[in-house]
Recover the amino acids of this structure.
């Protein structure tokens, strides 16, 4: 098979979410002179409100909305401060994000074999494009499918059908790998792709994962 689609977050790199949530909460607490506990609670409620309003679509992960709701709860100026706090989170996140060991070697080998590579990822397109650029993936990635453009999140079949449509091939012609058993492995499997579950603990070196689990299917 000459087409591989990969999940992005926690597959090609380890997302530093907890660390950056702490940075954001500490920043907000200091900025407003409030306790860390209050800042954390307001953030958690803001996140929960977003997820209740927008289940199963890309915006369910949108931190701009989490933070806007957080500032509404704290009765702060949402227009003045939402983007500032949003940038504190994402600037730190992107700075701390690095490709997993072996990912670059894997992508170089796939390219040299003439295999097309796509990214299939939940979340809004803008931030996923920022991540792909920061991680240096531009030379290796032929297509990107986000849940924002598909209208639904993995494991919805819409995501996987859009991958095949972009690659101009059948679902059964695609090898798919990702870290979530439910979203990636079952989702891609049920859609008819050759799905492979990526387990970080088993394969800290992504190239080894590629050699043992992906390469035999190419
Ligand atoms: Mg993932």
């Amino acid at each position: 098979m000459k087409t591989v689609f990969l999940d992005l977050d926690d597959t090609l790199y380890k997302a530093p979410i907890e660390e950056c949530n702490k940075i954001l909460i500490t920043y907000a607490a200091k900025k407003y002179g409030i306790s860390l506990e209050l800042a954390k609670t307001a953030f958690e409620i803001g996140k929960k409100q977003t997820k209740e309003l927008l289940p199963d679509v890309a915006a369910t992960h949108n931190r701009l909305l989490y933070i806007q709701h957080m500032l509404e709860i704290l009765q702060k100026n949402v227009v003045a401060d939402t983007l500032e706090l949003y940038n504190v989170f994402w600037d730190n996140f992107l700075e701390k994000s690095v490709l997993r060991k072996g990912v670059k070697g894997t992508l170089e080998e796939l390219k040299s074999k003439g295999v097309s590579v796509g990214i299939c990822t939940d979340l809004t397109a803008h931030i996923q494009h920022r991540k792909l650029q920061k991680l240096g993936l531009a030379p290796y990635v032929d297509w990107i499918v986000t849940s924002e453009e598909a209208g639904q999140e993995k494991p919805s079949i819409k995501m996987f059908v859009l991958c095949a449509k972009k690659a101009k091939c059948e679902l059964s012609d695609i090898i798919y790998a990702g870290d979530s058993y439910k979203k990636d492995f079952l989702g891609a499997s049920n859609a008819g792709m050759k799905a492979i579950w990526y387990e970080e603990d088993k394969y800290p070196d992504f190239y080894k994962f590629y050699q043992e689990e992906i390469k035999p299917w190419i």
